[in-house]
Amino acid sequence: MSMLPDDLWNRIMEIGIGTKSLNYKDICRLSTTCRRLRRLADDNSVWSPLLLSGFPTSRMDLHLISIARNSDSTLNRKVKSLYKTRYFVYVLRPKYGLIDCKNNDRYEKEREQKRLAHRRVVLRIESEKAELLRPIQERELQSSLEKEKLKEAIAELRNLWKARY
């Protein structure tokens, strides 16, 4: 791997993406193998074809891609981050019902509703528990009162027994 120059690795990735042999997952896996491939995989020339072939694009996207191709470091990783955003919007959100944290008013409402529903369930269970414990506590109280009466009766019987003999 270290024998091949960077431009050859870039060309290999571009050909793989062009022939659809490599997809975004493969590029991400390549980028985790070493620093050199991470740097090469973060290049805009790798992510531009993926973005153009995978998602609907606007004029702004095309303009950003053309600027990113011409500049070296100012817009580095911009196309990759644009791909991540599009992947979230067009794939993850519909598939898993995810929401964007930037527009989290609805999320906060749903979260609060879930929290309140959970709280109602907890209160209902605690109420049922209290209802079930009430007769037990009453019986324990009666039992302790009867024990006291029994102790008093035993003490009185002992006193009577002592007085008799």
UniProtKB/TrEMBL annotation:
<dbReference type="InterPro" id="IPR001810">
    <property type="entry name" value="F-box_dom"/>
</dbReference>
<dbReference type="Pfam" id="PF12937">
    <property type="entry name" value="F-box-like"/>
</dbReference>
<feature type="domain" description="F-box">
    <location>
        <begin position="1"/>
        <end position="50"/>
    </location>
</feature>
<protein>
    <recommendedName>
        <fullName>F-box domain-containing protein</fullName>
    </recommendedName>
</protein>
<dbReference type="InterPro" id="IPR036047">
    <property type="entry name" value="F-box-like_dom_sf"/>
</dbReference>
